[in-house]
Amino acid sequence: MEEGTKAGTYLVDTNGHFPALVTRNSSTFDFRARFSATEDNFISVVFFFLFVGNCVCGISSLCNINSTCTIKTLSPELPVRSIAYLQALSTATSLLRSAPRRLAAASRLSSRRWISSETMTKLDTTSRLTRLRGLMKERNVHIYIVPSEDSHSSEYIADCDARRAYISGFTGSAGCAVVTLDSAALATDGRYFNQATSQLDSNWTLLKQGLQDVPTWQDWSAEQSSGGKNVGVDPTLISGSTAKNLAEKIRKNGGAELVPVDGNLVDLVWGDERPSRPSEQVIIQPDELAGESVLNKLTKVRQELEKKHSPGFLVSMLDEIAWLFNLRGNDIPYNPVFFAYATVTPDAAKLYIDEAKLDDKCRSHLTSNKVDIKPYEAIFDDAQALHAAHAEKSKSGDKVPTGNFLISNKGSWALKRALGGDSSVDEIRSLIGDAKAIKTEAELKGMRDCHVRDGAALIQYFAWLEDQLVNKKATLDEVQAADKLEEHRKEKKDFVGLSFPTISSTGANAAIIHYGPERGNCATIDPEAIYLCDSGAQYRDGTTDTTRTLHFGKPTDAEREAYTLVLKGHISLDQAIFPKGTTGFALDSLARQHLWKNGLDYRHGTGHGVGSFLNVHEGPIGIGTRVQYAEVALAPGNVLSNEPGYYEDGKYGIRIENMVLVKEVKAKHSFGDKPFLGFEYVTLVPYCRNLIDTTLLTSEEKEWLNTYNAKVLEKTQEYFEGDNVTLAWLKRETQHIE
Question: What cofactor is needed (predicted)?
Fold first, then answer.
């Protein structure tokens, strides 16, 4: 917590004894702590010393669980920053009564409410915003845009690129911050409304994207620019197309212009505290796992360049570079990618990378595939030189491609400017991204294989978790449980790491779509509440992403109905057969239809593409209402998720997710000789029998479930030899549904 903390409620670290809240109001501090009583309902806590800066207070209180003590400071001038160092020494805690233990759900709910990180932590951004505004004034910038992405348009980013989180306090993976000289706004989508509401302090206005009458961050920025104000942005963090559209909006609203600001202003505010850029070693992804050589991939890229009469393609997306050169890295958590750029021209391929990342094998791999190695920082100078050389050859009458240079429509404005701008550059849906989305046979085999192993790990975990909570009455928090799941995955062949932070969420936390439990500050799992686990792993032969929602006690009728409606949509999408050329946009309603019939819905996409030992979120395909999902048809070889859900804010959340492959299927007829496509699920983890209301299922849906359960049992039971707990759980969850 920084200096200048305002009145409000803050999470305080009490040296690991217990999580606590402190509310500052003038010279009064309300101290709230969650205590744990195993034998009694009441506990007596005597704080012998309560250190608040240089102030020492003595206090004694008899407290019920989650009660509040009010502590008066000795000095109203106490430095506010001292709150951050509050230490409660509970050295004389004792149980007073031997009253029967109450199994009160209220206490568990209170526990979850107290320690959900998304509902507790607010960063005071006043000081950071003040410093940023000072820099803005120096550069004659009235509005400054801080995107979530890095210079490679990555969804998941390295710590050094978390600029939007640093300046706003909002830690979700999607959103954009806009700071003016006297206000600030944060725009994000429905997945993060709850989290953003909880994390943003009073300096910020939340723009809930997708809701009626709520402006986009672009429109809000343009509105703020009226009266001739400049809007600034780091040109490496915004795409060329976005910059062009935003500049037009600014002009229409009476603003001055969109200014490319060299030297990121948030980085300057961050200063020496900013983490260093990672430089992890790169490894080779063997051809037998990739299914295609680097030379073949480069040949196909050059064929596309020839079709478009283009002199070259500049590649900036990290997963595209890793895929193109059959390399993997570890620069961004959970994503096996590395910081690099690349250029492909008719006669050369260059990889721009910190050469310290490459061992002799990697250098030899690149050299043998006719790839030149260049310094990472040289990309902008080389892009300018590439444009200048092409322009010179064109003027001199040399035979050169007549088209423009190509960059991805996610490529940065800075790259576009380096290549000559609008007159010299075409922004396209990346031809490498399109190729990467259609997996080779080797990659499809890897996906099938790794999901069997991953499914076995999840089955072991869920069986263990139920045994611990129900039979052994163990107390486990969300992170402790997630750690156990990772242990099971680590035992599996070719495990590399997780594919994203595990969403281990109990009760109301499950309603936060992208909830992230925090070690030492997360909820105790309640066996009488819904538990949602969304997790995945990286294996050398594939990437997994699976969500299951469970209940270890007695669910309510409303919970069972909601779960079953979600399951019905999940099954409907899996069973879909559709003509070639159909988009994910067109299929989205299949997963929502049963919820819609009951006036329910969810605020996230139904499916996203998945990489092969690459990013767990991969474009350009997906299932949902995004515009891009209406532009790209699904094709055989695509791998994507099927994950409908439903969420009751403050109560529970439900999501069911499988990975599916797109494949050609044989239908009874063949209308117009057009191929028809369908899905093949590869995720093999049972659904929660306790949450299924079979009276809501059709006979066809029951048949689908029985077929699925039989396959899960067949493919995974060999992993549980001698593990009676897991095998019993698996057989119970996969038993035949009448």
Answer: Mn(2+)
The domain segmentation of the chain, as residue ranges, is: 8-102, 126-273, 283-437, 441-728
Peptide bond into 346 cis (omega under 30): no
630, 621 Cβ separation under 8 angstroms: no
CA distance 577 to 676: 7
Determine the topology of domain 441-728 in CATH: Creatine Amidinohydrolase (3.90.230)
For residues 77 and 55, give the distance between their C-alpha atoms in angstroms, rounded to a whole number.
11
Cα separation of 438 and 449, whole Å?
Answer: 18
Q: How many angstroms separate the CA atoms of 52 and 77, rounded? A: 12
The highest-level CATH class for domain 126-273 is: alpha beta
Task: Judge if 126-273 and 283-437 fold alike in CATH terms.
Answer: yes
Residue 601 tokens read as 């819905």
Torsions phi, psi for 98 (to 5 deg): -115, 35
- The pTM score is 0.82
Mean pLDDT for the chain overall? 86
Alpha-helical (H) ranges within 291-430 are 294-307, 318-324, 360-368, 379-396, 413-418
Q: Rounded to 5 degrees, what are φ and ψ at 337?
A: -125, 175
- Annotation: CATH topology of 283-437: Creatine Amidinohydrolase; Chain A, domain 1 (3.40.350)
Spatial CB neighbours of 180, under 8 Å, sequence gap ≥ 6: 142, 143, 144, 224
CA neighbours closer than 13 Å in the CB half-sphere of residue 715: 22
Q: Scanning the structure block, which residue is given the tokens 């499916």?
A: 607
Q: How far is CA 59 from the centre of its chain?
A: 44
Grade residue 393 by pLDDT with cuts at 50, 70 and 90: confident
Cis peptide leading into 620, omega within 30 of 0? yes
